[in-house]
Amino acid sequence: MNATTWNTQVPDGRAPARPQRVAGWLKGHERVATVIALLLLLLAVGAFVSDRFSGLTNLQNVYEQSVGLALVSLGQSAVILSGGIDLSVGSQISLLSVLTSGLIDGNAARVGPVVCAILCLGTLIGAANGLLTVWLRVHPLIVTLGTGAALQGLTLLYSSDAAGSVPATFEYFAYGRILGLPAGATATLIVFLLVAFFLRGTRPGRYLYAVGGDPNAATLLGLPTRRVLVSVYAFSGLCAATTALYVVSRFGVGQPYTGANYTLASITPVVIGGTMLAGGKGGVMGTLLGVYLMSLLNNLLNFMDISSHYQLVIQGVIVVIAVATFTGRRSHRA
Amino acid sequence: MLATEFRATPSAMSRRLTVPAHWLPRALREHAFALVAVVLLMVAGIAAPALFKPDNLANMALQFVPLGIVVVGQMLVILVRGLDLSVSSVMATSAVMATAFSGRDRDLFWIVPLAVGMGATVGLINGWLVTKRKVSPFLATLATMIVLQGARNAWTQGAPSGNVPPLLRTLGAGMTAGLPNNAVVLLLIAAFTFVLLHRSAFGRRIYLVGGSPEAARLVGIAVDRVTIVAYALSGMFATLAGLLLSGYVSVVDNWVGKNFELDSIVAAVIGGIALSGGKGGVAGALLGAVILVVLSNAVVIVGLPIHFQLVMKGFIIVLAAALYVAKSKGTR
Fold first, then answer.
1. What is the Cα–Cα distance from B187 to B192, expressed in whole angstroms?
2. Are A320 and B140 in contact (CB under 8 A)?
């Protein structure tokens, strides 16, 4: 940003300053730039594969369908920024989606209370994860592996098959439009912007980075480390709950294994988006770009008629490549 | 992060110096959770006497062996501060491989080397990612698990078919004189691992790498190589367990060995294998597996719904890990 002020000797000022400004921005955002480049590459490849791929209708579909992954990855980003990991999001989504359609059971009058209850329940489950890590001093990896198993068990105890149904109006979250734009996806985008502002521009947001960077130092500085950690997991639970609502909204019913693939899927965009798994570095807008990248990729694979089995393979390979490429220089293990 | 949170144990060595000759109390402390679990088992045995009837014991023994084999491999990985989530996928893949040929015994000449090679390759990839690329163990193994799962599903088109060779069925499900045949494989693996850990220089290196990678590096140990070998062994053991399990279930689907990654970690934690690395042994791991199998069986015998098993395992792993963390903090 300083670069622009140095260029005052140029009469017009703007034209020569521009490349420098771009270069300066790139320096701090190599990863975001990489993701944007990859997005453009995908679009180019896609245009080659099918002329419908780069059409507005399809891109709008991708945007619309990215909501579920975006929301769960938002929570995961916050947890990873705090230096932890949440392996229970998949089971949370399974449990909460089955509960949503099971409790509503086609009754339009129950939609409001049930949605509120699900959001509260998700937050509580997340807070429980946070409290367990903080109280028991067990690594979040083990805590959420355990609670994830327990939640999956509870899901299957509640229903081992698709449960209940939702009224047609429930589809609005997944398919509704505002001014021609997908409502859910646009709301999600706004939420990301708000969270990004919260993290960068407010005191609790900065606490999160401090805690993730070095929890001991944060505690010594007098920051409420434990409260930050519990809030972060609670937020992840809330995000998982909204993902569950989206899934039910999109498919019309909750399934007991519907969340299974979300656990790894939610970590992928975070890593691609440049958030360090060790915590303390990164941001949510990178995650959102990662989400769009993964959604676009899946969409392209569908266009290329590649079976969902191979999509899973490709997703795993991408995670490995992303993590292996970007964390190779880290000195100590996580 | 993982390391700093789990750490905080004085080395076994220094504790031995401070508490000389009191092996029993130390053993009690080392296996605090195992003791709790044994008490639980007794309660379960009283609540449901059918649990310890000969028929059920034999059944549990058959179920115990594949888990025991996987736990021994999981233990090796945990000893070097890792975690292997890919074991269940390796098991299912080797089970699918077992049915990929004509279903006759002579196919085993192909099946076993191919499957073991597959398991070793997955292990090597895991180890390479963890050591050379510094990927966190859970993420590396989670990713290989997913890749393998996708590859398997793509290959079988979601519906594997074919028959398990009869010899594998005899080995995996048969009993001889009241003892399960598959125990032979477990015995071989346990003996091999025991000798490896406690009677070889390589075993000392594993403990040293797990106890302190920096120190191990400074005394000239090839930390990366030791770690990679641990992952490769875990992959190979998981393969053998998968083959035995394919013989046990005899109708193979894409999910043979489902949840074994969780089960093996739970069993290892119950058995006192410290997730911080460098602490634990074969006996503890197998004891943990025994306890887990009996508890899971008790859930069914007592009449609770089967999915309650998953809930129980989830609680056990968190509780057990918490107990060990609290214990190591207390004795410092």
1. 8
2. yes
pLDDT in tens, A236-250: 999 999 999 999 999
CB of B96 less than 8 A from some CB of A: no
ipTM of this complex: 0.80
Give the distance, in angstroms, between the CA of residue A140 and the centroid of all CA atoms in the same chain.
18
Nearest 10 degrees: Cα torsion A185, A190, A195, A197:
150
Contacts of B96 in chain A (CB under 8 A): none
Three-state DSSP at A311 gives helix
Give the confidence band of A180 by pLDDT, cuts at 50, 70, 90. Answer: confident
Q: Quick check: B310 and B241 in contact, CB under 8 A?
A: no
Q: Check if the beta carbon of residue B230 is closer than 8 Å to that of residue B79.
A: yes
DSSP state letters, B151-175: HHHHHHTT-------HHHHHHHH-E
Q: Which two tokens stand for residue B21?
A: 């000759």
A179's torsion region: left (phi>0), alpha (psi -120 to 50) or beta?
A: left
Please tell me the predicted confidence (pLDDT) of residue B187. Answer: 93
Residue B145 near residue B261, CB atoms below 8 Å: yes
Per DSSP, which regions of chain B are E strands? 175-176, 179-180
Burial class (CB within 10 angstroms; exposed 0-12, middle 13-18, buried 19+) of B65: buried
Q: Does A151 touch chain B (CB under 8 A)?
A: yes
Residue B268 — very low, low, confident or very high, per pLDDT cuts 50/70/90?
very high
Taking CB atoms and an 8 Å limit, are B308 and A83 in contact across chains?
A: no
Task: Please give the biggest Cα pair distance in chain B.
Answer: 61
The span from the CA of A130 to the CA of A231, in Å, is 7
CA distances from B229 to A257, B77, B145, B226, B260 (A): 34, 9, 18, 5, 21
Distance CA B298, CA B292 (A): 10
Closest Cα to residue B110, out of B96, B120, B121, B98?
B98
Buried b (16+ CB within 10 A) or exposed e, A40-72: eebeeebeeeeeebbeeebbeebbbbbbbbbbb
Q: Is B211 exposed, middle or buried (0-12, 13-18, 19+ CB in 10 A)?
A: buried
* Residue A149 contacts B, CB cutoff 8 Å: yes
Is B314 within 8 Å of A264 when comparing Cβ atoms? Answer: no
For B28-33, what is the mean pLDDT? Answer: 63
Bridge partner list, B176? B179
In A128-275, the DSSP E strands lie at 177-178, 181-182
